[in-house]
């Protein structure tokens, strides 16, 4: 059977499980175990898709959004992220509007890495090979200097399925949620998605 979109979220069942289940059903069932399993997987995939489309950003988002202003020094940005145990923050403009997002990857990039896919240990390795402190490029910089802009956002009624696809397509770990008026009302992270009422992947 062709692998389906949400198969990794579905509990594995063996042929013995299927045969036992079929014996538990009273009466004669004119279906083979392989057809039974295929029907089960199709049903589970449809159920998973229905759940993902019924759960919206507003249902799982963190409403008390921790953010920084465009003029916030990077030292303060780092302190805020460290204090709250988060790996990214939205950046707001002079009127409180969302203008960008800062993640740990942005700090790593400015610290001398050529790509934003660099890991923390890659930065340490590079720093140990240099006589100059890797934080020097961060001195005197503000949130506006390293933020990713424009920010990738979703609306309050964006389905979780779309958010999951966005995380994968854009290689991001969080996305700000805007109201219909364009105001920042929340943020959804990968952790929020994992904690949503949806069968968890074993991967």
Structure description:
- With 203 residues, the protein is α/β, with parallel strands linked by helices.
- It folds into 2 domains: 7-54; 58-195, CBS-domain.
- The chain has 9 helices and 6 strands.
- The chain has helices spanning 15-24, 33-54, 57-60, 74-84, 104-110, 120-128, 143-146, 160-170, 190-195; strands at residues 68-69, 88-92, 98-103, 154-155, 174-178, 184-189.
- It has a 3-stranded mixed beta sheet with strand order 1-2-3.
- β1, α4 (74-84) and β2 form a beta-alpha-beta unit.
- It is elongated and about 75 Å long.
Keywords, please?
single chain, 203 residues, alpha/beta, CBS-domain, 2 domains, 3-stranded mixed sheet, 9 helices, 6 strands
- Per CATH, what is the topology of the largest domain? CBS-domain
Structural class: alpha/beta
What letter string, H or E per element, gives the SSE order?
Answer: HHHEHEEHHHEHEEH
Low-confidence stretches: 199-203
What level of helicity do the residues show?
Answer: 40-55%
Continuous helix count: 9
Q: Using the coordinates above, name the CATH class of the largest domain.
A: Alpha Beta
The domain tally reads: 2
Please, what is the CATH homologous superfamily of the largest domain?
Answer: CBS-domain
Radius of gyration: 23 Å
Mean pLDDT: 79
Q: In the CATH classification, which architecture of the largest domain applies?
A: Roll
- Please tell me what the overall shape is: elongated
Biggest sheet descriptor: 3 strands, mixed
Q: What proportion of the residues form beta strands (DSSP E)?
A: 5-15%
The order of strands across the largest sheet is: 1-2-3
Tell me the span between the first and last alpha carbons.
21 Å
Q: How many beta-strand segments?
A: 6
Work out the oligomeric state of the chains in this entry.
single chain
């Amino acid at each position: 059977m062709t692998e389906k979109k949400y198969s990794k979220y579905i509990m594995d069942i063996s042929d013995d499980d299927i045969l036992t289940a079929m014996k538990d059903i009273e009466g004669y069932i004119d279906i083979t175990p392989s057809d039974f399993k295929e029907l089960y997987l199709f049903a589970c995939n449809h159920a998973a898709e229905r759940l993902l489309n019924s759960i919206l950003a507003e249902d799982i988002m963190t409403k008390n959004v921790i953010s920084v202003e465009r003029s916030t020094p990077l030292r303060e940005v780092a302190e805020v992220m460290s204090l709250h145990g988060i790996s990214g923050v939205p950046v707001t403009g002079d009127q409180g509007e969302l203008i960008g997002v800062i993640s740990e990857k942005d700090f790593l990039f400015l610290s001398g890495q050529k790509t934003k896919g660099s890991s923390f240990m890659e930065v340490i390795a590079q720093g140990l090979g240099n006589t100059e402190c890797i934080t020097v490029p961060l001195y005197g910089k503000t949130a506006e200097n390293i933020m990713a802009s424009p920010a990738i956002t979703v609306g309050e009624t964006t389905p979780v399925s779309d958010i999951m696809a966005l995380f994968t397509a854009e290689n991001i770990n969080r996305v700000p949620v805007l109201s219909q008026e364009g105001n920042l009302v929340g943020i959804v992270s990968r952790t929020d998605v994992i904690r949503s009422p949806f069968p968890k992947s074993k991967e």
